[in-house]
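Fill in residues.
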């Protein structure tokens, strides 16, 4: 895919077809070399998880990029983009991705329904949970059980699709593999391999059907897609990012496709950063709060809004639900923790990898630590809170406890990055138990920087045709009883597990909330005492 501007210039030069071809091929080769060279430089000199990924995944992305440079001219555009994405996919890191140029960034591929998993008698099944309101079919509707995908048993199809994602954690890989069966980003998949799909399913009347689907495109305007890639450029103004960008984008698309149908079923896709309600259960009434995102630009206002709600809630117990929260600003996630405990919050710590490049990029106090590594030979810098200024510890404790009842946190494998860090802080600071619908969170333990954040102040040139690279630059390590343990690849292990039921998926998480309430009921009267009393 040559640059159309270059095509126009070459066409006006009066050259032979062979000369035109040589000029265009030379330009494409230069563009690709620039992309490969920058990816090579960043992974080799900045990527904080490189030692971990090499060891756990038995890969060598540096050598693979070096070999790619010798094959650039012979590759067509699609194969080059696939190879770049493949190299980054092997890292198994949702923070560290290659985003191909336009038009891939703006194109997404969708089917008119969503599939979710549930359990019955310890057996996992897959149900259509939402259907687009414009899709009409005599048998495929909300509640049908999907059994096969293109003739492949659905469980195996999800497993294979999960291998194509960036996800490292096995639990998260299955959930991402499930989500991307019906909703795919052009930034990751470029174009679907399948021209059409056959879905086999069982209706509520136990009738077996098969239906053929074709992918539909859901396009973001190019200006919006490009803006999204640079919308967080000025990190100093808002804070440090820890987020799965693709999941955040797909959530917006999902909301656009299914919000109306969900409202008809008394379900909601989020409209605000958090929602709250009072839930009646067999164990009594408990408060419920859903935090959908930590992409909060004004964290002080957000926390003050939270405080106003918390001070009105009954103190019998609070359920905090962060399932599906793909992250946001790390400071926002850590500052919320203080509201639920009398204990002084200790934030998670962050480290750079020690290289000459990070020595140039890192601010204090990390810079001094990296300088010392010349003599010590340490792989990583010392760990410091993400808010590196001296008063950050005071900031994450400035409001103190505002909710004085027992608290439980609900997580899943889609909790990523800042939400991983929030869950780790919840556990490391002994705020309360964690109830998981997966065996761990998404295992994204890092502060992510965009290529724009690196080239804009540090003399790098923009990548050709607005291609992008995102990179995990500082890794998160835990505190408290898990002191020094990395979050990346491991995530946060919940104290309790709840397997989602058919009733949960189709009727507003009723069994999940009942399970959380049963745990809270055993905690009544305990949470008012400081931790050291136990």
């Amino acid at each position: 895919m040559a640059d159309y501007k270059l095509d126009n210039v070459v066409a006006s030069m009066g050259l032979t077809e062979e000369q035109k071809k040589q000029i265009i091929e030379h330009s494409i080769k230069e563009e690709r070399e620039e992309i490969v060279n920058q990816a090579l430089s960043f992974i080799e000199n900045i990527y904080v998880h490189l030692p971990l990924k090499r060891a756990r995944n038995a890969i060598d992305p540096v050598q693979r990029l070096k070999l790619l440079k010798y094959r650039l001219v012979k590759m067509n555009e699609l194969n080059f983009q696939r190879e770049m994405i493949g190299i980054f996919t092997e890292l198994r890191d949702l923070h560290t991705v290659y985003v191909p140029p336009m038009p891939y960034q703006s194109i997404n591929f969708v089917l008119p329904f969503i599939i979710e998993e549930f359990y019955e008698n310890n057996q996992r099944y897959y149900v259509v949970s939402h259907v687009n309101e414009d899709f009409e079919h005599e048998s495929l509707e909300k509640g049908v059980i999907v059994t096969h995908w293109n003739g492949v048993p659905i469980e195996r199809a999800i497993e294979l699709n999960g291998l194509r994602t960036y996800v490292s954690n096995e639990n998260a890989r299955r959930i991402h593999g499930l989500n991307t069966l019906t909703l795919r980003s052009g930034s990751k998949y470029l174009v679907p391999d399948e021209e059409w799909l056959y879905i086999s399913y069982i209706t509520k009347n136990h009738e077996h059907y098969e239906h053929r689907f074709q992918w539909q495109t859901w396009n973001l305007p190019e200006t919006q897609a490009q803006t999204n890639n640079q919308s967080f450029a000025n990190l100093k103004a808002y804070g440090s990012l820890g987020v799965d960008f693709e999941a955040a984008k797909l959530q917006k698309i999902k909301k656009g496709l299914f919000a109306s149908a969900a409202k008809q079923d008394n379900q909601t896709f989020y409209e605000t950063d958090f929602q709250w309600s009072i839930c009646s259960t067999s164990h009594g009434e408990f408060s419920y709060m859903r935090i959908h995102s930590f992409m909060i630009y004004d964290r002080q206002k957000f926390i003050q809004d939270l405080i106003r709600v918390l001070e009105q809630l009954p103190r019998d117990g609070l359920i905090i639900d962060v399932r599906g929260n793909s992250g946001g600003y790390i400071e926002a996630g850590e500052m919320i923790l203080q509201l639920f405990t009398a204990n002084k919050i200790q934030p998670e710590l962050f480290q750079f990898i020690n290289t000459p490049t990070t020595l140039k990029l890192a601010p204090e106090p990390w810079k001094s630590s990296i300088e010392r590594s010349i003599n010590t030979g340490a792989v990583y810098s010392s760990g410091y809170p993400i808010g590196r200024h001296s008063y950050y510890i005071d900031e994450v404790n400035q409001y103190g406890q505002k909710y004085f009842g027992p608290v439980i946190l609900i997580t899943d494998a889609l909790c990523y990055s800042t939400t991983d860090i929030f869950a780790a802080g919840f556990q490391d600071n002994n705020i309360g138990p964690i109830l998981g619908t997966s065996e761990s969170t998404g295992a994204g333990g890092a502060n992510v920087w965009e290529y724009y954040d690196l080239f804009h102040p540090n003399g790098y040139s923009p990548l050709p045709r607005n291609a992008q690279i995102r990179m995990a630059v500082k890794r998160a390590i835990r505190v408290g009883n898990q002191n020094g343990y990395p979050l990346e690849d491991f995530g946060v292990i919940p104290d309790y597990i709840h397997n989602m039921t058919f009733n949960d998926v189709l009727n507003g998480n009723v069994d999940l909330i009942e399970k959380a309430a049963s745990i809270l009921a055993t905690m009544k009267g305990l949470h008012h005492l400081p931790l050291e009393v136990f």
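The chain has a mean pLDDT of 87.
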